Amino acid sequence: VQLQASGGGLVQAGDSLRLSCAASGFTFSGYAMGWFRQAPGKEREFVAVISRNGATLQADSVKGRFTISRENAKNTVSLQMNSLKPEDTAVYYCAAKFGTMGNYYYTEGAYSYWGQGTLVTVSS
Questions:
Q1: In whole angstroms, what is the distance from residue 33 CA to residue 38 CA?
Q2: Which residues of 107-118 are buried (b: 16+ CB within 10 A; e: fewer)?
Q3: How does pLDDT run across 44-101, given as a tens digit for each residue?
Q4: Which residue pairs, CB below 8 angstroms and at least 24 apart, start in 41-47?
Q5: What is the spatial distance between Cα 84 and Cα 100, in angstroms, rounded to a whole number?
Q6: In three state form, how does the secondary structure of the chain look?
Q7: How many CB atoms lie within 10 A of CB 51?
């Protein structure tokens, strides 16, 4: 099983960035996919999730700015991040949750597989 996140980098406040996560080694279409992030000195937090059929939920802090999407044919999940703020600076992780989105989609423990993370730095 592998989740390979990419697309991070250094951007300025107000810029956009698109993260991608390539999955392999499991039946991608059978999993809800999520993005989490961990800022320096803070705990990892939920960002967004997409169900097997494309329903999405986002954290309040990114609602209206970030969009999660998936392409089951390519085994990829993406996170389009617009209007980036310095407080969005973090390592971003993609994760896979077997089955439905469920009630605990926002908790780390609900996810079976994790990628290695990609660093996003937003300068003011």
A1: 17
A2: eeebbebbbebb
A3: 999 999 999 999 999 999 999 999 999 999 999 999 999 999 999 999 999 999 999 9
A4: 42/90, 44/93, 44/108, 46/105, 46/106, 46/107, 47/79, 47/92
A5: 29
A6: CEEEEECCEEEECCCCEEEEEEEECCCHHHEEEEEEEECCCCCCEEEEEECCCCCEEECCCCCCCEEEEEEHHHCEEEEEECCCCHHHCEEEEEEEEECCCCCCCCCHHHCCEECCCEEEEEEC
A7: 18
Structure-token pair, residue 60: 């309040």
Structure tokens at 94: 């993609």
Q: How many residues does the chain have?
A: 124
Residue with tokens 């999520």: 34
